[in-house]
User: Which sequence fits this backbone?
């Protein structure tokens, strides 16, 4: 399946993006001058067995007043996958974009999400999303954050049951969403993803991912199962913290350069190195990044165009540099931190929400998710935070992070 890439629309979109830029900022990105042709689409990969090739870079949701400019800048730099969701509040900006340039809709792969408790709610929810987006179809409709609003057993049953299968088929036949799937960052997402591979209903999954999965760990095996079944995989929330497109903090840049000299030789920044590490996993079709400004879009698009697989040793060096610098985000695993700490507090989720707040600019979402936790899940008093740190594969410094959680989110 090919997306509509008529040169006239490409040109128009590019010029509109240029017009929205300040008069002095004649260079949009990728070093492309306003008088030049827009950049061609970024390199693509098949999204599982959907028959669609998606760009390796996906413009994640960003809140702010200048979204239309951001969308156009991403598009002008070759990004063709755009991510939104009901809770982000960014869908109306797409509607505005489609109204201003109707040809765009067919040129992008549009993903939105909602939070059904049961499959029977999905058709109504999708209709609402389409009305808000101002389009009669999306390419991919995700159940948002599967596991957050269900128990793990409910989530596992959801992705395998007949009702979901029938609803997914009805939606695909209606053409209102070409493909169906879910996003998940749940600590037990390996089990949910494994079940989805068994169920064979979903077309794609967006997951919190890290590029240094151990061969035998459950998440890696679950991704293998999806790969074999032809379920497309999109990476999100890969590391966050200092890596997530932010300005260098402290000495992370020094740390990366010291430990991975080959990145500097390849003229890759730390975040570009991270993207290359993720793309080195051929199971991952696209990486969703909440790119918030022209510099981030340019840097990430440049990384996609210059992608060459990293060696396993380089990926491990990147892991070590990240851990050495002190990551803030719970990047994975089964919640062993809480068990080791002897607490019911969800330490991994608490650090994740803190990352949204501190590094991703998602302050409203961070507070909303924090508030949605039970009092028990928020209460880390009495937890053995040093034991939690020792158990955490990312060695998160909970003793430092938990007071920050209370300060910013409580
Ligand atoms: S141990 Fe670390 S990576 Fe695992 S859930 Fe806890 S914070 Fe997340």
Assistant:
């Amino acid at each position: 399946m090919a997306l509509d890439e008529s040169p006239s629309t490409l040109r128009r979109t590019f010029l509109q993006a240029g017009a929205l830029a300040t008069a002095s900022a004649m260079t949009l990105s990728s070093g492309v001058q306003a008088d030049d042709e827009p950049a061609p689409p970024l390199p693509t990969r098949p999204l599982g067995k959907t028959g669609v090739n998606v760009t390796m870079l996906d413009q994640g949701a960003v809140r702010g007043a200048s979204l239309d400019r951001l969308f156009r800048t991403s598009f002008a730099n070759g990004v063709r996958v755009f991510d939104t969701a009901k809770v982000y509040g960014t869908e109306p900006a797409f509607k505005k974009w489609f109204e201003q340039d109707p040809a765009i809709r067919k040129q992008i792969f549009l993903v939105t999400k909602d939070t059904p408790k049961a499959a029977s709610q999905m058709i109504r929810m999708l209709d609402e999303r389409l009305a808000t987006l101002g389009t009669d179809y999306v390419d991919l409709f995700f159940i948002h954050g599967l596991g957050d609003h269900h128990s793990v057993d409910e989530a596992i049953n959801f992705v395998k049951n007949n009702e979901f299968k029938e609803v997914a088929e009805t939606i695909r036949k209606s053409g209102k969403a070409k493909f169906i799937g879910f996003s998940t960052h749940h600590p037990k997402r390996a089990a949910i993803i494994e079940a989805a591979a068994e169920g064979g209903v979903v077309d794609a999954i967006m997951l919190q991912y890290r590029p240094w999965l151990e061969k035998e760990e459950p998440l890696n095996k679950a991704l293998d199962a999806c790969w074999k079944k032809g379920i497309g995989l999109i990476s999100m929330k890969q590391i966050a913290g200092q890596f997530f497109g932010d300005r260098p903090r402290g000495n992370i840049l020094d740390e990366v350069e010291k430990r991975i000299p080959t990145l500097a030789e390849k003229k890759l920044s730390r975040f570009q190195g991270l993207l290359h590490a993720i793309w080195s996993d051929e199971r991952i079709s696209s990486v969703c990044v909440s790119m918030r400004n022209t510099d981030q879009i340019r840097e990430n698009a440049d990384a996609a165009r210059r992608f060459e697989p990293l060696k396993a040793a380089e990926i491990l060096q990147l892991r070590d540099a990240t851990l050495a610098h002190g990551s803030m985000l719970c990047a994975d695993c089964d919640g062993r931190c809480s068990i080791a700490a002897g607490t019911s507090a969800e330490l991994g989720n608490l650090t994740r929400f803190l990352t949204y707040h501190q590094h991703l600019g998602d302050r409203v979402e961070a507070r909303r998710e924090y508030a949605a936790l039970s009092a028990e899940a928020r209460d880390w008093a009495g937890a053995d935070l040093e034991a939690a740190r020792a158990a955490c594969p990312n060695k998160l410094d909970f003793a430092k992070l938990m007071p920050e959680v209370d300060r910013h989110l409580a």
Q: What stands out?
A: The radius of gyration is 21 Å. The longest strand covers residues 177-184.
